[in-house]
Design brief:
alpha/beta; Metallo-beta-lactamase, Chain A; binds zinc ion; about 375 residues; 12 helices; five-stranded mixed sheet; about 35% helix; single chain; 3 domains
Length: about 375
């Protein structure tokens, strides 16, 4: 097919959609390949979550819901989201990975309430948590997010990310996509929101998972929506953030003392302190190993030797996360060696914490 015919097809597709959507953007690099819906569907044979009536729902407290994604798939599956119903409208937490998923999330909310969605809070700027945001924006919600949108995923620009992500989700799921993660209400520090008499704290944990991390804390219900600072298997990604900030963010969650934590991915943590401790032990052990390797002059390649290889084409599988985090933390420790190293007291505090971890208690130096 010529580029001109393909472009004409894309324009026809846009025109056909115009009746339904106010604003539709087909990612530029896709338009040359947008032949027919049938061809596209055959290229992306997959389960389409937008054919689901609703996602599973879990009421954590009166009017506070977790919308559960996949469990047992680490961070590869559909993420979690949530929402809070107040007399003045609904506050949604995270928008899922596509307009298709956003539409099902909206239908899921509508099984509970007809109230308008006032706010959408984004816990960070990864596409699996934000690419459904346009659905809520078009429904009138104001977006609350950290203004720092930088991640490795969009390092080559927003168009490239939208195009790549369409390859992951499929064009049908991405129908109606436009970026909507730039905040209407930018939040850079802890901020209290009172909606319909409900207290909703937007917590800034620091650049732990990404530079734009936020968490949502309901002090009266003691529920925290932690974003990807917590994930079900305790191996939180730090390649867009840092391990020091991750440790600080975990301490922050401990200080909140939540009754329930909703991780970014996977099953609910009904004993949040346990998931926090597991995550902390993983981070501390990795920092300890890499700090020793750097201090002993062990090359990065050798330092990574103990780890299984990363999985091809699965950048966030468990093995890929372990390896990518290790690379990141090795570099952090190199930087620390070259620059202003942490104080002896800080190192001793980390060693003491690590000594309480299950595999390290007995043989900690
Ligand atoms: Zn993420």
């Amino acid at each position: 097919m010529t580029l001109r015919r393909a472009t004409a097809a894309a324009i026809a597709l846009l025109a056909a959609r115009g009746a339904h959507a106010q604003q539709t953007i087909v990612p530029r690099s896709l338009s040359a390949d947008s032949a027919t819906r049938a061809a596209i569907a055959s290229r992306y044979p997959r389960d389409r979550s937008d054919t689901l009536p609703a996602f599973p729902l879990h009421e954590l407290a009166p009017g506070v819901y977790a919308v559960l994604g996949d469990t047992g798939r680490g961070v590869e599956g559909r993420p979690n989201a949530g929402f809070v119903v107040t007399p003045a409208g609904v506050v949604v937490i995270d928008a899922l990975a596509s307009p298709g998923e956003g539409r099902v999330l909206m239908r899921t909310i509508r099984t509970v309430t007809r109230a308008p969605v006032r706010y959408l809070v984004l816990t960070h700027h990864h596409p699996d948590h934000t690419f459904g945001a346009i659905v809520f924006k078009r429904a009138g919600a104001r977006v609350i997010a950290h203004p720092d949108r930088r991640t490795l995923a969009n390092i080559d620009g927003d168009d490239r990310l939208a195009s790549d992500w369409t390859g992951v989700m499929g064009l049908e799921q991405m129908r109606g996509f436009a970026y909507a993660d730039t905040p209407d209400i930018p939040v850079r520090r802890d901020t209290m929101l009172v909606v319909g008499g409900r207290r909703i704290e937007i917590v800034r944990p620091g650049p732990a998972h990404t530079p734009g991390d936020l968490m949502v804390w309901l002090p009266n219900e003691r529920v925290v929506f932690a974003g990807d600072v917590l994930v079900e298997d305790g191996v939180s990604m730090m390649v867009d953030g840092s391990s020091a900030a991750m440790l600080a963010a975990l301490s922050r969650i401990d200080a909140l003392d939540p009754r329930v934590a909703v991780p970014g991915h996977g099953r609910l943590a009904t004993h949040p302190a346990t998931l926090v401790a597991t995550t902390r032990c993983y981070v501390l052990a990795l920092r300890d190993t890499m700090r020793r390797a750097v201090a002993d002059g062990v090359r990065m390649g050798l330092a990574l030797d103990q780890l299984p290889p990363a999985d091809r084409d699965r950048p966030v599988s468990l093995h890929s996360r372990l390896r990518r985090n290790a690379v990141r933390v090795y570099s952090e420790m190199e930087q620390a060696l070259l620059g202003s190293s942490p104080s002896k007291a800080a190192l001793a505090a980390e060693a003491r914490q690590l000594a309480t971890c299950p595999q390290h208690g007995s043989n900690a130096r």
